[in-house]
Write a structure and sequence with these properties.
- The protein has three domains: 53 residues; 79 residues; 79 residues.
- 18% of the residues lie in helices and 43% in strands.
- Strand 6 and strand 7 form a beta hairpin.
């Protein structure tokens, strides 16, 4: 006979995983577990291990300490934003109904509340202003290359294949730039925000204090001096 206390630990693991993916039915969650080899004959230990791995990637709450992220980098999706947050900075990209991201903003923050699915996300910036960013739909752990890595130091001779599905946000002296499978420049003018979209093959140079140089077809795109580089998305490899 099994120790009845094991039931509580197994149900806690199931609850934590399901709360991180509230869009799923319980049957769908079990189907996902079956795809991971957790089916008839699997032990409770194997089930709990699989559940813990799933909640490690998609938790019910971002880990916080005193209102700030305590470890890792996280992507939070709300109905109108893609929000990336780590210990130091928050990157906010508005998204329209067609899923097209607009001009990003980056700022240090004081605290964050509601960092979990079905909770209203509220961020207080470093100056004490509150930003209400909508109800969180999902939280996903992002890859982080090194401890305390909140900014990318520099990039040189990086191809599109090198960055894969990574999304970078670059602040220059005159604009904000998003680099993903394309390059998107947002430049504030007197009465409008000018957006320009480019294809690109290689980042020749992207280093703070120097001009951003990007190879686009047969042309070399030149942008004003870089002030900062942030990782907006760097998804974990599928498991």
């Amino acid at each position: 006979m099994r120790d009845p206390r094991e039931v509580d630990s197994t149900l806690r693991a199931l609850r934590e995983t399901w709360e991180g993916r509230p869009e799923l039915s319980l049957a769908t969650l079990f189907a996902m577990l079956q795809n991971r080899g957790i089916g008839w004959g699997a032990s409770d230990e194997e089930l709990v291990s699989a559940l813990e791995h799933m909640s490690h990637v998609r938790p019910s709450l971002v880990p916080l300490a005193d209102g700030r992220v305590s470890e890792g980098r996280w992507l939070l999706l709300t109905s109108g934003h893609r929000v990336t947050v780590d210990k130091f900075f928050i990157v906010v990209r508005p998204v329209n109904t067609r899923g097209v991201a607009g001009q990003p903003v980056v700022w240090p923050y004081r605290n964050i509340r509601g960092a979990g699915p079905a909770r209203p996300l509220v961020v207080t910036d470093d100056e004490g202003f509150e930003h209400r960013l909508g109800v969180v739909e999902s939280v996903e752990r992002q890859r982080i290359q090194r401890a305390e890595a909140h900014q990318v130091l520099a990039l040189e001779d990086i191809s599109r294949a090198d960055i894969g599905d990574t999304v970078l946000v670059v602040r220059t002296e005159e604009s904000m730039i998003v680099i993903d499978h394309g390059l998107h420049s947002f430049e504030p003018l007197r009465r409008e925000l000018r957006r320009r979209d480019y294809s690109w093959q290689k980042i020749k140079r992207c280093s703070p204090g120097q001009e951003l140089l990007v190879q686009s077809g047969g042309s070399l795109l030149t942008f004003p001096a870089v002030e900062g580089i942030w990782v907006a998305e760097d998804p974990l490899p599928p498991h």
